[in-house]
Amino acid sequence: MSQQDVEVTDAEEVLDDAEDGQDVDDAQDAEDAGASDGDQLNDLELEGDIAADYVEGLLDIADLDGDIDMDVEGDRAIVSVVGATLDELVGDDGVVLEALQELTRLAVHRQTGTRARLMLDIGGYRARRRAELSDYGRSVAEEVARSGEPKELAAMSPFERKIVHDAVAEAGQRSESEGEEPNRRVVVYPAP
Predict the structure, then answer these.
(1) Which residue, 25, 118, 132, 176, could crosslink 77 as a Cys pair with Cβ 3.0–4.6 Å?
(2) Nearest alpha carbon to residue 51 among 87, 103, 114
(3) Model confidence, pTM
(4) d(Cα 71, Cα 136) in Å, to the nearest integer?
(5) Which CATH number fits the domain that encloses residue 143?
(6) pLDDT by residue (tens digit) across 125-170?
């Protein structure tokens, strides 16, 4: 029996306990209380392995070629798919990628019983987008500093807004998210 089999079985036991009358959150909290950093790393590696298997299955169904890399960064598993013909899996403005990420998170949740925060990247899209948005956030912050006027940006995903907020803060300005999804946007304000 592999380590992955054991960890999945442990997650299934938590779900079985919940079906026997215990609260899933109480059972998970008790399990988390005894977890060490090594356990968290193992859990994230398990999430990454499950996600990688799921994505590999999707690629096979779609008859697409791609190599899958799995890493753990901070408190999140990152699964990356690299290949030459993957633009259709990213879609316009990353919409398809966001949907695939949510499906992958659901697949992990189904096997582990816990909500996954994993990130899926295809063809380096998120890395490129992160660099573009950081530059954009810095340039908007500089513009707002010069003009003294707030600037409202286009609607963005939570991933994109976080990058812009970080870049604006690094440039010494202030920003807030306003509006409701899917039209939530960053507004950059001059520093007080």
Answers:
(1) 118
(2) 103
(3) 0.69
(4) 27
(5) 3.30.1370.50
(6) 998 999 999 999 999 999 999 999 999 999 998 889 999 999 999 9
